[in-house]
Amino acid sequence: MNQFCSMGRGLVCRRRRRHGALPCYYAYPFPVPPPDEPTLTHHTSTEGPRLLDELCAVYADAYGVELDGEKVGAFRNRATKALDRPRYGLLTAQDGEQMVGFVFGYTLPAGTYWWDGLTPAPAAGFTTEDGTRTFALAEIEVRAAWQGKGVGRALHDAMLAERHEERATLATGPQADAARALYERWGWGAVGTIPGKTSSYFSEYTLYVLRLPRGARA
Questions:
Q1: Which has the higher per-residue pLDDT, 136 or 3?
Q2: CA distances from 64 to 72, 86, 144, 155, 182 (A)
Q3: pLDDT digit string, tens, across residues 95-121
Q4: What confidence score (pLDDT) does residue 197 get?
Q5: Distances from the Cα of 135 to the Cαs of 56, 67, 89, 108, 112, in angstroms?
Q6: Which of 45, 33, 160, 139 lies closest to 94 in space, CA to CA?
Q7: Domains of the chain
Q8: CA 51, 57, 60, 63 torsion: positive or negative?
Q9: Percentage of the chain exceeding pLDDT 90
Q10: CA–CA separation, 44 vs 37, rounded Å?
């Protein structure tokens, strides 16, 4: 049975499983969705392939690029590979029949290359991963018409509230000043830069870290 909870600004979160003790930030029982507001739905990796075209459509709209262009093609490859990552999670925002936003990520495995080349050099043990410590927030996108309406923040908060890792991390590309400013307002802190890999879209990335509430209580 689906359950609903308010997510601030009238947004609604629909879960496929029963709520835990603290399922999301600012969550209160709400029996039916408010009208004209997106519904947030959690998905597993097995559902990802059938949603891939919709994810690409949202991504293209968010960046104002052609659906069959290089940028969306690179995103499709990343989104497809992410489905095989450990503890993958996908959360979508739906307005009627149209997907208007999404966020997905996964747990960093032991031996990950995520932190390779981090500058400045971090404290001892900072980059150590055991397969349960860090959630990588890989992508978060919202259609242009829905940006600035709280959809991205609701997706962000609802996804992170479900995670049991100690911390979360994300990467931003160059010239992403607006995105970095937004993440910093949401509590993320920059920890340094890493060089892009051979197959990466950018030559350098800035890494951010955020401590997670469930991980802090563990």
A1: 136
A2: 10, 31, 8, 21, 20
A3: 999 999 999 999 999 999 999 999 999
A4: 77
A5: 22, 29, 10, 6, 12
A6: 33
A7: 3-217 (3.40.630.30)
A8: negative
A9: 75
A10: 23
